[in-house]
């Protein structure tokens, strides 16, 4: 099992609902306002019914933003197809959905060989038992708290038992939540044990991104502190 660093809060705004024609400007502003990393939603129109962007755009963004941590959330039917191009584009964490993948260990190994960290994502209908045997292969487990494919959906609080199970059994694992996460739902996420917080609309559409990000961080850090005491 890989050695893990002490748990810390990481806020990764999803740029899905930003002005994609201004992707660099919007992304840089999020980082300037306190984001720890950028969560880049890649959709293929097949695994989910929407299309966003692929590795050429990520590579252009990397050419402008040299050092920030990039996570690509691969909502695609064939994640293996994009490992090399995304590694070449400068992605740090390659998060893919386990549902369409037949050989999860092989995909994890290829991601590592390409020099990226591994994230495993679960749709709302997917149970923890489906990922349990693969957790040691991953750096992050991402629990979807909406159906993947569109921004701005309502948070599903009934996903929190998955987060609780992961935190209880893997105290130092990075556990992410994605979908409908913002100031009104962050407490449920933090108390369940999530430390990687993907927040889209709540941050992007805010007049004061810095204070929203700081507020999310404060709630999560106080929960982590309680766990460590």
Automatic annotation (TrEMBL):
Pathway the protein takes part in: Carbohydrate degradation; pentose phosphate pathway; D-xylulose 5-phosphate from D-ribulose 5-phosphate (non-oxidative stage): step 1/1
Active site positions: 41 (proton acceptor), 178 (proton donor)
An example molecular function term from Gene Ontology annotations: D-ribulose-phosphate 3-epimerase activity
Record carries keyword Metal-binding: yes
Cofactor: how bound: Binds 1 divalent metal cation per subunit.
Transmembrane regions listed in the UniProt entry: none
EC numbers on record: 5.1.3.1
Residues involved in a divalent metal cation binding: 39, 41, 73, 178
Cofactor: a divalent metal cation; Fe(2+); Co(2+); Mn(2+)
Binding site for substrate: 14, 73, 149-152, 180, 200-201
Biological processes, Gene Ontology terms: carbohydrate metabolic process; pentose-phosphate shunt
SUPFAM superfamilies for this protein: Ribulose-phoshate binding barrel
Pfam families per UniProt: Ribul_P_3_epim
Enzyme class: isomerase
Keyword line: Carbohydrate metabolism, Cobalt, Isomerase, Manganese, Metal-binding, Zinc
Catalytic activity annotation: D-ribulose 5-phosphate = D-xylulose 5-phosphate
Family of the protein in this entry: Belongs to the ribulose-phosphate 3-epimerase family.
Name listed for the protein in its UniProt record: Ribulose-phosphate 3-epimerase
Organism listed in the record: Agrilus planipennis (Emerald ash borer)
């Amino acid at each position: 099992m890989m050695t893990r660093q002490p748990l810390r809060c990481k806020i990764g705004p999803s740029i899905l609902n930003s002005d994609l024609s201004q992707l660099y400007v919007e992304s840089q502003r999020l980082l300037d306002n306190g984001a720890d990393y950028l969560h880049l939603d890649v959709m293929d129109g097949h695994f989910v019914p929407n299309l966003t962007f692929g590795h050429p755009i990520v590579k252009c963004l990397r050419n402008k933003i040299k050092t920030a941590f990039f996570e690509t959330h691969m909502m695609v039917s064939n994640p293996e197809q994009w490992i090399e191009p995304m590694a070449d584009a400068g992605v740090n964490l390659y998060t893919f959905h386990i549902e369409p993948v037949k050989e999860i260990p092989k995909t994890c190994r290829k991601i590592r060989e390409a020099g990226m960290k591994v994230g495993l994502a679960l749709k709302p209908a997917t149970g923890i038992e489906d990922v349990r045997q693969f957790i040691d292969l991953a750096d992050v487990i991402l629990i979807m708290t909406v159906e993947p494919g569109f921004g701005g959906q309502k948070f599903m609080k009934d996903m929190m038992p998955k987060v609780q199970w992961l935190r209880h059994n893997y105290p130092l694992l990075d556990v992410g939540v994605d979908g409908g996460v913002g100031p009104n739902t962050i407490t449920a996420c933090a108390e369940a044990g999530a430390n990687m917080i993907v927040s889209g609309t709540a941050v992007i559409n805010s007049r004061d991104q810095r204070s929203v990000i700081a507020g999310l961080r404060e709630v999560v850090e106080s929960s982590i502190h309680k766990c460590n005491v």
